[in-house]
Amino acid sequence: MQSKLQELTDKIYNEGVVKAQKEADSIIEKANSEAEAILEAAKQEAGNIKHQAQKKADELKRNIEAEMKLSANQSISSLKQQVAELITQQVIEPSLNEVFSDKSFLQELILKLVHGWTQNGSFDLNLILPESEKEQLLSFIKNSLAQELNKGITLTFDKKLQSGLKISPIDGSYIVSLTEEDFASFFKAFIRPKTNRLLFEEK
Question: Which of 3, 8, 82, 182 is the most exposed place for a label (fewest CB within 10 A)?
């Protein structure tokens, strides 16, 4: 009797131990499986983060390189323009200064403009001249264009006008400017591209 009781006790114990071991093994296996899944998901997430970070870094690098290239090109272009402008200025300005400082040139210009304007019989003309040369020009015009003055041509002397002259209808609806600055701008528009080609032509 005692033996059977012991045998039954041992059987129950052993069955409980086996069952507990199986449950423990199952729990451990499940935990290991979940841990592997978590680890795999973490690795994948880390890979995605790294990929996105690399993508952003590459994009930032491209943007910086493009911006630096644009800035460099703009700086070079500005420098070329300044050099060409300086050379063009050195070529044009001395010649124009010489021309416009010649009083006979301005007088001849006035005569040709007035005769050209009035050849169709219209004397609707206002001559705008430098205030600084008023005395000399007034004397010249009265002597050379007395007839035209009597027919309606008017004279205006402008303190802001440094050289050359301007002409307009008497109502001032438009003005044709023929100053040293106007001629300089006109010639620079033609000379600057040629200067650029001579200075910076790519080999």
Answer: 3
What pTM did the predictor assign?
0.48
Vertex 107: Cα angle to 101 and 110 (nearest 5): 120
Rounded Cα gap, residues 169 and 148, in angstroms: 14
SS3 (DSSP) at 154: strand
Domain ranges of the chain: 94-200
Domain 94-200 is of which CATH architecture?
A: 2-Layer Sandwich (3.30)
Measure Cα distances from 6 to 10, 12, 21, 144 in Å: 6, 10, 22, 151
The token pair at 120 is: 């169709």
Residue with token string 């591209």: 193
End-to-end CA distance of the chain: give it in Å, rounded.
116
- Reported as a single tens digit per residue, the pLDDT across 107-141 is 888 888 888 888 877 888 888 998 988 888 888 88
Distance CA 174, CA 128 (A): 12
Across residues 90-114, what is the average pLDDT?
A: 77
Q: Which residues, 6+ apart, have CB-to-CB distance to 117 below 8 Å?
A: 125, 167
Q: Which of 141, 133, 127, 128 is nearest to 100 (CA)?
A: 133
How far is the C-alpha of 147 from the C-alpha of 153, rounded, in Å?
9
